[in-house]
Amino acid sequence: MDLGIRIKDRHMWMVFVLPGVLLLVLVLGFPAITSLSYSIKPEKAGPSSYTLSNYTNLLKDPFFGKTFWNTAVFVFLSVASHMILGLAVAMVLNRALPAKPLFRLIALLPWVVPDVVAGIIWKWMFNPLYGALNDLLLKIGFISTQVEWLSNPKLALFSVILVNLWRGFPFVMLILLAGLQAIPRYLYEAAAIDGASKWQLFIHVTIPGLRKMIVVALALDIVWEVRRFGLIQAMTQGGPGILTEVLSTYTYKQYFQFFRFEYASAIAMVMTVVLLFVSLPYIWMISQEE
Amino acid sequence: MKTSSLLASEFPFKVIVWIFLIAVCLYCLFPFVWMLSTSFKTEAEAFRIPPTWVPMKPTVDSYIGIWVRKNFGIYFFNSTVISLATAVLSTFFGALAGYGFSRFFFRGRRFLIGFFLATQMLPGVLLVGPYFKILSRIGLYDTRTGLIVAFLTICLPFSTWMMKGFIDKVPVAMDQSAMVDGCSRLGIFFRIILPVVAPGMVATILFAFLLAWGDLLWALCLTSSEPMITVTLGIARTVGEFRIIWPMLMAGSLVGGMPAIILYIFLQRLLVQGLTAGAVKG
Known about the structure:
The complex is a heterodimer of chains A (about 290) and B (about 280). Helix content of chain A is about 75%, strand content about 0%. By secondary structure, chain A is mainly α. Chain A has 2 domains: about 1-40, no CATH class; about 50-290, MetI-like (MetI-like fold, Orthogonal Bundle), CATH 1.10.3720. Chain A is flat and about 75 Å long. Chain B is an all-alpha fold. Chain B contains 14 helices and no strands. Chain B has helices spanning about 1-10, 10-40, 45, 60-70, 70-105, 110-120, 125-135, 145-170, 170-180, 185-195, 200-215, 215-220, 230-240, 245-280. The chains are: A mainly alpha (about 290), B mainly alpha (about 280). At the A-B interface, helix 2, helix 4, helix 5, helix 6 and helix 7 of A face helix 1, helix 2, helix 5, helix 6 and helix 7 of B.
């Protein structure tokens, strides 16, 4: 009977899936192709209508190189710290605790507010003279003079990453907590009976049980951190100089401050290729399961 | 039994866990407390050295000022309309596609699922340039409609994936019994599936709403005039002004972040379920 019903209306999938697909192609696929075509257009009208000069100019642009490096540092440190803190908090929250929902809610708050709001709160926290952070650190004797969190060239990028740690770890925590709750208790009990230490439990039960969730959290987090825009725009706008400039803010500037659409599109294309490459294992894993 | 005795034997470990937990809570909450405190200060007090932690003469001037001296009312209206329209549209189309992916096994299904997933990965800056040009040409630049269309690019893939996760959990037997009773596929979808996954739809609408509400990039690139801008852009513009009035900015940020915070407090469980059902299936 099951089979009979399926065969009878098996073409109905189009009614459900095609509106979404067509809409996606229209609002997303079409502009993406447009962007690709911008990126191979010469900036100044010349003899040829197609060129790779935007891409070769990228390689010659020292700002692009610096921005690319900043993005790599920003994404790597952000994601690594998200994973470590996220896992630690998830493991703590997975224990039998009183008031667990309250703690989970508090830990989620930084992730909930808009990017801009997060950036602005911390810009004010970081204010060398009137901000709370320096005052706090001075009072507990951790520092002896005011720290220029966002304008010291050596510190600026790391200050931004510190904020991004605050902002982004709750998501990883959430995903990993769901993963931890799905690991059957008897696995721990069986291993404990066999005399496994806490560390062995962690390495041989927790981590393997979380493998899939770790892949998911890693992939999504990397993609989100590469695209991160509002936080940095609100806090530093890429400054001082280009010390906290990342690819997304740099592309935005090329588009809307210098109006170099072709060049900006080439940067965006580079970002897209990197993102698709990074997320390929995730996409592969998920679509194979289907 | 076994586990409780395990826990009892590790008293120092427990203390470390609690210290860690409290430190994390302070890290998470401290900036919000600072924001709250500043928002109740006078402008003069905000610029005191060293800063005061509790306002000496608490005032709600800033909370009045954002509505009276700034156009927060307009920003709020715009953000609400735009985010709600985006959320409802993307959840509706997402539910349709999600049902299709969940119940039909057709040729090219895997490819289309991969396509939906891949579109989630595209960076916004790839699309804002073409959007700016296209919307300008068809007269939708600096309109709420233009922004709604643009936000569909962020929200539709997410909504589809999340709705598919919820629909996957509904047993196929429900479809089949309705079919035996002579119900059409669309009838099943609207009359059986949608009511069953209503909590999931609420979660999806919320998530899409928050995605749209929290955006800055698209609002920055596709709107410009005061009557059209959103809360996030309104806040971001204040930072660019020559003289930043911090208490007012903090009040604005708090009010602008409030819808998100309130929605999460009340619907935390639903959203966590949605995120882990869609993005992550157990």
